[in-house]
Amino acid sequence: MWCFLLFTLASCLFNEGLCSSPTHHHNHKRQSKSRTTPPPNCIPIGKDTKNPTIKSALASLGTGNTPACLFLNPGTYQEQIVINYKGPLTVYGSTPNSAAYSANTVTITHSVNSATAGNLDKSSTVLVMSSNVKFYNVNFKNGFGPEKSQAVAFTAHEDSRHLSFYACQFLSHQDTLYVKSGSTTYFNACYIEGNTDFIFGGGSAWLQSSTIASNAPGYITASGRDKDDPSWFVFDKCKIIATPNSKLSGKVFLGRPWRKLARVMFQNSMLSDILHKEGWTKMADGATPLFYEWNNTGAGAKIEGRRMESKATGAVKIESVLRDWEGWVDRKF
């Protein structure tokens, strides 16, 4: 017994903390449960309620800073939303299965590109300027179309802290999910779809047990890290795939550096054959990015011939990305 324990300890030390990975709190199976009625003290939104739109419900919250809750009844909400509530906010979408994004019944959608809107923020279907916001079972979509144009589905604004997403979907083509500098975000069991730089920005994002789906040739990430700060994009236990009927073998890159000090890790994930053998490619002039891969599987995980990749010595821990995560991530999900 003692020999076994010593061997296990040695293995952990050799692998630089992998055995103590904080992702172990996600190893439990998510409980499938229905959430089709508002939790206590939650404002219902949708048809046959006092708030048929999300905008009206947000307006009803006023300028307070006490904890608030919104419950979206099933439907497609054709709205462009800015959230700047000062207190903690939880947003639930009605669902027969809270554990699976595929069961979501709520979609917030808008269709505009940044050229028409004026900038990236103004193109975003949902822009969150608040901190301490949780979303459960909500789909965010920018339906502008496949034209080569930036059209954001969701933006975490500068310094928006503690935004978390559980079984949510993010749908667009270019620039789907924008995580701006200073923001801290966490995604669990989510689905993110796009093709060009569709997870991008200079903030921090920890993506756990999520599906990343390319719908055309392109680049998954475009890290905007431009100074020596703690920001990371880390994909842990994710699946990197193509959307159905997309023939993308060898046509997708893990990322490119939008800014000079881009930093991204794919670890413990399944990388399908959509990946180009070089893995990463150029963008910003003079960039010295930190692009890592660790302990991945699948046809795209073969790292011979990788370009611009830094050598990883172990898995990244969540506290390196979201330092105070234990205080705001829903660990029961």
List keywords for this structure.
Pectate Lyase C-like, 13-stranded parallel sheet, 5 helices, 23 strands, disordered N terminus
Write the layout of secondary structure elements.
Blueprint: H1 2-14, E1 43-45, H2 54-60, E2 68-72, E3 75-78, E4 81-83, E5 89-93, E6 106-110, H3 114-117, H4 120-123, E7 126-128, E8 133-136, E9 139-142, E10 154-156, E11 163-166, E12 169-171, E13 177-179, E14 184-188, E15 191-201, E16 204-208, E17 211-223, E18 233-236, E19 239-242, E20 252-255, E21 263-267, E22 270-271, E23 290-294, H5 318-321
Parallel strand pairs: 1-2, 2-5, 3-6, 4-7, 5-8, 6-9, 7-10, 8-11, 9-12, 10-13, 11-14, 12-15, 13-15, 14-16, 15-17, 16-18, 17-19, 17-20, 18-21, 19-22, 21-23
Structure, explained:
The protein has 333 residues and is mainly beta. The chain has 2 domains: 41-189, Pectate Lyase C-like (3 Solenoid), CATH 2.160.20; 196-206 and 215-333, 3 Solenoid (Pectate Lyase C-like). 10% of the residues lie in helices and 32% in strands. It has 5 helices and 23 strands. The chain has helices spanning 2-14, 54-60, 114-117, 120-123, 318-321, and strands spanning 43-45, 68-72, 75-78, 81-83, 89-93, 106-110, 126-128, 133-136, 139-142, 154-156, 163-166, 169-171, 177-179, 184-188, 191-201, 204-208, 211-223, 233-236, 239-242, 252-255, 263-267, 270-271, 290-294. Strands 3, 4, 6, 7, 9, 10, 12, 13, 15, 17, 19, 20 and 22 form a 13-stranded parallel beta sheet that branches. The longest helix has 13 residues, at 2-14. Mean pLDDT is 92; it is low at 1-26.
